UniProtKB/TrEMBL annotation, chains A, B:
GO terms for cellular component: mitochondrion. GO terms for molecular function: asparagine-tRNA ligase activity; ATP binding; nucleic acid binding. This is asparagine--tRNA ligase. Residues 256-283 form a coiled coil.
Length: 566, 566
């Protein structure tokens, strides 16, 4: 096993021309990438016998039905393997339908001269077929719009575009982990269910079992109605009666046996009463107390939400383990129907102790460059697909970002540049010191003015969160945003305010209550440390990389107002 | 940048003795691991000037207060760096308090003979101090129980145990990604918010904005009460009146100007009426329809939950991209107060096309072995800490699992073994064919009978989920569980039923409705494929590795009934 540990992933693709194609270790087939992803396009493994499996992209019968060509894709790479099956091997009719799953054995051959392929598979045996009725299959081979595909999230991974995006997304996720691990950052799973509201103002989803509990109770009460007042009164009378009986027997000096039998009856009557009283209290509906919902009866004994950011929580680990990051789902219950918003999306949030805003910018820049270079090194075929079909500039953009130094300007300088620009072009949003930069401003800076990624830093404190470090000018905070062409803001981060008195005042200044932040203040009370961090919207990074326009197409299962399929 | 891409992480630790210690790239310090983690324990870098930062584990003044020793930890490794500060450099009183954060510059020196350390730091300059008031600090240097620490989730990462667990957890997470990437699996982010219930019976958390919306509305209605019936009636009368006025003017052949002025008044009255009628409909409370909650008004226009498993959704990608996995948070709203249950926990769920139950077992075994070997290769210092403090057998257990072939027995054989054993020992739960194995049975098999990891396969179909492949005997399904010493079941998996008619019947047989599973059935309707997968409870793996007893201590922010801190 020792040989299996810590394998450099990139060795996977550096097969030499002499290698035999290797069967995948945990499935009965050779990955098509293992054949077509070779530097020789697969020519060097002609003659070998292999099993492959995949789904038919297109198929056609030829030679008057004597054989069929299938373009087979197994998701391991964008390229299809050309497969040739003789009618003597299997009935061809159902094999050629788009969407059919085939699992076959055969021999790799060099195709006749003049064809595009460097290798093709001659099938000797069909192991399995998952048929498709073309009259019913929702994804015919005609080109389908991304919008149409959103109604088939369970089938759309079979399309070229969604599968290419899935591979790019996978690559960016592993690149993210590799970058931070390489730099000694520890991956921390921050909570999804939270009782803190990071931004102090987020539209949050509530997590509860109260409604379910109320519905269960309601059903139960219908089946088994609560006692009436009369029932309770009757039970009370019985207790009195039994109590009197005991007293009578005692004063009459009855036998021990008689008395204890009578006491037993009294106990039983009392138990029955308390059970009835308990059940009489049961009320259908969500439990209330003092006119408000009684969250003490909710699962966590308080109101709970889905996290909007793991930052505050990951800071607790940064203030102990120094360099950490979180990478997980975050949520916003905003009724935004735009192409840039999701209700559920993934964020990467590193947090670094002993780091100031400059270190933070260095980390953000190195990380984004690393991601771009990783795609160029590991996903060039998928990127070529995106260039051909969606965004001519996608690869050039990755190259540009991977190789250029990011421009760094202060917010104040950025505003001056925008004010100058506003003399010659019209912005929809007015530019003046103090505003939050709008997307059009950000894109002007990165796309028009600098034609490069830009980091804007030192924003007015009035428009930024309470946890950001107040600069010496007392007007700005040590915040920074990374702007890139195509999407504008890709990263937002800051040095965190580590001074107890200052951050406490900032919380109060913003009209927030202190109590929910006491744990956060503890990080400043005890062994406080200079620290900084940032957040990268993972889907935004994929939009940036692929050139896709709508964020709903770069996450496997998009959630937005009115939609949460599957 | 090209040189930075795809770096083999393991090179990080293979520094040679000639290397200069390298400053961390994004913070102003050298990681203590870079010094103490060297094969020479740091002796080879004596003489070098470095900056380090961390938190004081213990400190003491010596030589009548002329200098102080600090044991400094920065979370990069379990070992502390010994730091010596002269009273001429900084006031020592506050530096020596446990929990103090110090950021210092100095020179690495070889300590006098006879001391434990191979290197220590002589401080020349104190850059920063985050002080601690020892009278208030909740984590004094005395040994604290894990139970006590659960009340301080925001500070407990500063303890030796929780930080060691955090590093082990981090290593297992990265090992997970590396294993699957190495084998060509694509990482898929399955949804957290879901409208499907995988198991068909899970206790699920509900995700909603209805309560929040109702509270907002209630406040709004108090500020701005809805119109009374009289208000609406008055508005209606006004419309009638204005309508009559228009009719009168028209029949009186009034001027165009007069008529259009009158029509304008009518229009205004009508608008006012419809506004009032709209507002009159507003009712405080959660919206109802036909006596039930009206989920069409919830955020996703239907009832939504937190996922209990990503399996069904990740199958949609396996049936398109062949080898995939998901690794994310999952949720159960069970009122379990045990040391083995959490309301929020992480699962690793691979799913493989063209794979049967045997491939599935091979994958599970290789994965678990890989994780164990990874910890031996990358976390031996933390594992030694666990052995010393919690579980003498922890490292031996990893070695055993990494190097032994897992025993594989059918459920039927397992039951026979247990029945035999039951003759000599007492199980709390009766053993007979058809039961679900209890934890005591599982642990008997792996700990007592085989003293090895055991995979039990082919379970009775009556106790397993509808999606598992029915075997030819029609009595069992191709399910498998991986049992390991210490925790029992670590992995549960199965070959999936790929036959449309069979799985449809299984759903109905179990009394489940078909409609919510139509999308899942589509995977069998169109291009169906043999496929298999499993789920590993990530926290269970950490319990197994570390020997820690309570699952609440191996996740950064535990969620369980009554508790969701931060």
């Amino acid at each position: 096993m020792a040989a299996e540990s810590a394998p450099p992933v990139e060795q996977m693709s550096s097969v030499t021309l002499n290698d035999a194609v290797e069967e995948a270790q945990f499935s009965k087939r050779v990955l098509i990438r293992t054949i077509l992803g070779r530097p020789d396009g697969g020519a060097g493994v002609a003659g070998q016998k292999v099993r492959v499996g995949g789904w038919v992209k297109t198929g056609r019968e030829q030679g008057k039905g004597s054989f069929a060509f299938l373009e087979l894709n197994d998701g391991s790479c964008p390229a299809n393997l050309q497969v040739i099956i003789d009618s003597s091997v299997a009935p061809l009719g159902q094999l050629v339908q788009t969407g059919t799953c085939v699992h076959v054995e055969g021999e790799l051959k060099v195709p006749p001269e003049g064809t595009k392929q460097r290798v093709e598979l001659r099938v000797h045996k069909v192991l399995d077929v998952g048929a498709v009725d073309p009259a019913k299959y929702p994804l015919p081979k005609t080109r389908l719009t991304l919008e149409f595909l959103r109604d088939y999230v369970h089938l759309r991974p079979r399309t070229n575009t969604i599968s290419a995006i899935a591979r790019i997304r996978n690559a960016l996720a592993y690149a993210t982990h590799t970058f931070f691990q390489k730099h000694g950052f520890l991956y921390v799973h921050t909570p999804i269910i939270t009782t803190s509201d990071c931004e102090g103002a987020g539209e949050m989803f509530q997590v509860t079992t109260l409604i379910n509990d109320a519905e269960k109770l309601e059903k139960e009460l219908i089946k088994n109605p609560p006692p009436s007042e009369a029932d309770v009164e009757a039970a009370k009378s019985l207790v009195t009666e039994k109590g009197e009986a005991v007293a009578q027997l005692k004063s009459a000096k009855a036998s021990k046996q008689e008395i204890s039998a009578s006491v037993a009856e009294l106990t039983k009557a009392k138990e029955n009463l308390s059970k009835l009283e308990e059940r009489a209290k049961l009320k259908p509906g969500i439990p209330q107390k003092d006119g408000k919902i009684d969250y003490s009866q909710d699962f966590f004994a308080r109101q709970a939400f889905l996290t909007v950011s793991g930052q505050l929580q990951v800071e607790t680990f940064a203030c102990a383990l120094s360099s950490v990051y979180t990478f997980g789902p975050t949520f916003r219950a905003e009724h935004s129907h735009t192409s840039r918003h999701l209700a559920e999306f993934w964020m990467v949030e590193p947090e670094i102790a002993f780091a100031d805003i400059k270190d933070d910018m260095n980390c953000a820049e190195a990380y984004v460059k690393f991601l771009c270079q990783w795609l160029l090194d590991n996903c060039l075929d998928d990127m070529e697909f995106m260039v051909k079909n969606f965004d001519k500039g996608a690869i050039d953009r990755l190259r540009m970002v991977a190789s250029s130094d990011f421009v760094r300007i202060s917010y104040t300088d950025a505003v001056a540049i925008l004010e100058e620009a506003a003399k010659e072009r019209k912005f929809e949003n007015k530019v003046e010191w103090g505003i939050d930069l709008a997307s059009e401003h950000e894109r002007y800076l990165t796309e028009v003015k600098f034609k490069s990624p830009v980091i804007v830093y030192n924003y007015p404190k009035g428009i930024k969160a309470f946890y950001m470090k107040v600069n010496e000018d007392n007007k700005t905070v040590a915040a920074m945003d990374v702007l890139v062409p195509k999407v504008g803001e890709l990263i937002g981060g800051s040095q965190r305010e580590e001074r107890y008195e200052v951050i406490k005042d900032r919380i109060l200044e913003m009209g927030l209550p202190l109590e929910p932040y006491e744990w956060y203040l503890d990080l400043r009370r005890y062994g406080t440390v200079m620290h900084s961090g940032f957040g990268l919207g993972f889907e935004r990074m994929i939009l940036f990389a692929t050139g896709i326009d709508n964020i709903r197409d770069v996450i496997p299962f998009p959630r937005y107002p009115g939609r949460a399929d599957l």
